[in-house]
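Table S2 (text version). Query chain:
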Amino acid sequence: MSDIARQVDGTQPASLSLDRSLLRALPTPKVTFDHPEYSPVSSDDDNNAPAAPFVVALFELSKDQLRFLKLRCSGDRNPPTAVSTFQAVAAHAWRCACIARGLLPSQETRLHTITDVHGRLKPPLPPRYLGNAAVRISVTTKVEKLISHSIRYGAEHIRRVLNNIGDEYVRSVVDYVEVTGISRLPASGKLLRTDLRIVSWLSLQSYAGDFGWGEPIYVARPHFSGGGHGYLVRSPRKDGGVGLTLALEVDSMERFKQLVRQSAMVRPSEPTPQRRLWNSNLDLVVVRWHTPSVYFYRRARILNNFFDAAVLEAALARVLVQFYPVAGRLARDEDGRIEIDCNAEGVLFVVAEADCTVTYFQCGGVALGVGMQHYVADGYTGINFINSWANLARGLPPTIRPFIDRTLLRARNPPTPSFPHVEYHPPPSISTEVISPSPTSNKATATVVRMFKLTPTHIDELRARVPPGSPKFSLYALVAGHVWRCACLARGLPADQLTKLYIAVDGRQRLKPPLPDGYIGNVILTATPIATADEVIAGVPEAAAKVQGMLARMDDKYMTSALDYLELQPDLSALAKGPHTFRCPNLGLTSWARLPIHDADFGWGRPAFMGPGGIAYEGLAYVLPSPTGDRSQSIAISLQAEHMDEFGKLIYQI
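Corresponding structure-token output:
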């Protein structure tokens, strides 16, 4: 219509399909599914009560906020679960609404929506079918389950229900309506206070209606029949964002706003260099994910502004001025190589009540979670970024002065590797079946993460296992050898099974000349001792010797050769670490023992604990220092569930 109004050349009214008998019920209706969304609303007192006063608000979510929501819906899965924009936003809004309304954990809650069925029928409806071709859908769960889990729980429920909507289901709806009778169906505007209804307009060309005076600046529904109704539309700015227009009870809306909006893109507080930052080969072979870490803080009794979000956000904006690549975005150069576009778009800062950046607990404590894109930073860089952020929050200078030039790690010209660099070769595969779960066990593919503390007594016992007169082993070599040995035993590896241990080695001080202290980027190379299982399980000294022997090779000559080796590889992405790298029969053990992971004092004290926020891959582990400096170390490790129980016993059998 708008094209005709503007007299666009060649515009003709669209040829429509007017045959609505395509959606006629069967002569003998056949209802093959339950359709609770079309069931009459129960007549209890709550439902018969007058509708509560409600207000309408618009919530805008940027492209980056949507990306963050989808990341939370995917969790630690690799590859991430495909989550649509509707599923992510609807799950977030549904969960926030349950909390804002103060629903009881035992109550049942439903998310209602409608879905277009043009393409779900067989054969599909004609593209220009004129008529209603949408069915009601509802997703049901208990409030307790929805709010005690992350939004991934709700998103997965929504996705499963929508994926089941096919031709048979739609035909069942048509026949159900025929059998029930239109007059007996509940009006779609009637909602229980426990429920939410969100309709997606994302697939509609909402902003194409230009009658000659420009496109509309916003499109929305003019009337809402009650609280709990919402509509999701694309941003008129065409910037990848969306807008959620939601009606909610007056007494719940303010709380809902706090929950759904407690996120912001924090940008550098001052102008920063606008440039493209070249990534070294070491930046391009890291694990492709955001490295999650979490800090737990106990509440200080005498402080009233404990973990003030405004203080944290302001300090974050200041630290991004100096660590400006962190506020950029990944991009590709003309050759397709990944680089960092230092465009100051900012980082996502979230304050919430569960699984977000800053989480407040009822006991008064706080959890601070940070996800650092591994292309941007390794552990040393990431820890110094967080510690500098903490220092600025309490009026101190950053811990380091960032050095932002990754060309220091360019390969030689011409590249001349002098070692075979087995660390980049494919890992050994399992040659025979290891300890297997029973066919009916759910542990067949499940992995679990656990943490084991090695006390000073355990450390001393490890040292005592080394025979007199033997070479002196570093503490890391002893701990790594012990963990490697326990993993081989717990997995039940046969004696001749090859196993590879991946050890992250910081090259900053091993290269000649050493890199500047403030070098920002990945300087992690990998030492990979390889042995048969019987060689590893022979004893702690034997396993530690293999670890220490490989670490001794990691000097300037070896590391420079590694840079040259990577330069000659046609596809660095093929060498990137992932779930295939560490899984049985192999292991990865990264030590944070020498990193200042407990120095992040934002003004309210040091963290009571710091560690990985999740371990995505089976066979990956971390060594953590004690927060109290008592010489103890903790091992955070991910293993197959069937192997973890045995590992937990072996780790203390020194």
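Notes on Table S2: The two ends are 80 Å apart (CA to CA). Confidence is low (pLDDT under 50) at residues 43-47, 353-357, 435-444.
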